[in-house]
């Protein structure tokens, strides 16, 4: 059974993985035996990521690539296949959020979030699937969100993208499952990363950010999750242990979606 969780001999591309959730998932996959390849949008971030992986004893390969640029993504995949090998595991992790009330949000801002969080997973998946078909197997993991299921104020573009990503996950499953390609999602709850730092800022009076208090009250364990807590679920969905799982969104949220929330007082 242990071998079915092994990623030995597998090449994993994790997008936007210089730090944050992508870095944590890549680290876990490396510990399971995968060869790690990642990209980021700026060379300085790729260099920062390479140093961080090296510190953990991981010889990752890093490339500069904007995942919204289809030509750049196709060139990246070709370069990886030439320099490292065919991509067995793709994690569509790169993402942005803009927290703006919908009627104050420009169409440009809305489109930018959709571009990174939904169009890019389409572009990168489209680039890697042909070689997965030729190889006879593949794993695609889309990083979804609580906002794949729930809305909240100021995140209309992000929720629309992550809701769409849930359905793209199901559609890749439907179209390519016949080629032994499994496409699933991970839906993280509220994770301690730079993306959520503004929601956890200590207030001038030294108190916790109201949103921080809100999320703790919505989480049965009364805490935010750490990026490392996504590693095991990601290794599972990247391994042969999950070959029977397809089109599924695995929520790693500490129970938020199951819980009405702690009563005040
Ligand atoms: P993060 O700290 O903001 O990291 C996002 C990464 O994506 C950064 O390395 C960023 O690079 C990269 N990126 C952004 N746009 C890119 C582009 N066009 N091309 C290539 N790379 C790009 O975010 P995170 O918290 O680790 O989140 C990672 C994923 O998990 C995202 O999809 C996010 O929506 C999702 N998620 C996060 C949480 C959470 O609570 N943190 C919960 C659920 C889902 P730059 O630094 O150069 O922008
Ligand atoms: C927000 C947060 C969330 C998290 C995550 C929750 O503003 O509500 O940024 O969107 O990033 O997606 O699963």
Topology overview:
Elements lengths: L10 E5 L4 H12 L3 E6 L2 H13 L5 E4 L5 H14 L5 E4 L14 H29 L2 E6 L12 H21 L4 E8 L21 H9 L12 H8 L10 E4 L13
Could you walk me through the main structural features you see in this protein, from its secondary elements to its overall organization?
The chain has 265 residues and is α/β, with parallel strands linked by helices. It has a single domain (2-192, 225-257), classed as Rossmann fold (3-Layer(aba) Sandwich). Helix content is 40%, strand content 14%. The chain has seven helices and seven strands, in the order βαβαβαβαβαβααβ. Strands 3-2-1-4-5-6-7 form a seven-stranded parallel β-sheet, with helices on both faces. α2 (43-55) links the parallel β2 (35-40) and β3. α4 packs parallel to α5 (156-176). The chain binds NADP nicotinamide-adenine-dinucleotide phosphate and D-gluconic acid. Residues 97, 99, 145-147, 152, 155, 158, 188-190, 195-196 line the site of D-gluconic acid. D-gluconic acid is lined by residues 97, 99, 145-147, 152, 155, 158, 188-190, 195-196.
What structural keywords apply?
single chain; 265 residues; alpha/beta; Rossmann fold; 40% helix; binds NADP nicotinamide-adenine-dinucleotide phosphate; binds D-gluconic acid
Label the CATH architecture.
Answer: 3-Layer(aba) Sandwich
Helix content: 40-55%
The end-to-end distance, rounded to whole angstroms, is 47 Å
Strands, count: 7
Bound molecules: NADP nicotinamide-adenine-dinucleotide phosphate, D-gluconic acid
Mean pLDDT: 98
Main sheet: strand order: 3-2-1-4-5-6-7
Q: Could you state the order of secondary-structure elements as H and E?
A: EHEHEHEHEHEHHE
Shape: globular
DSSP summary: helix tally: 7
| Computed CA radius of gyration, to the nearest angstrom | 18 Å
DSSP strand content: 5-15%
Q: Count the domains.
A: 1
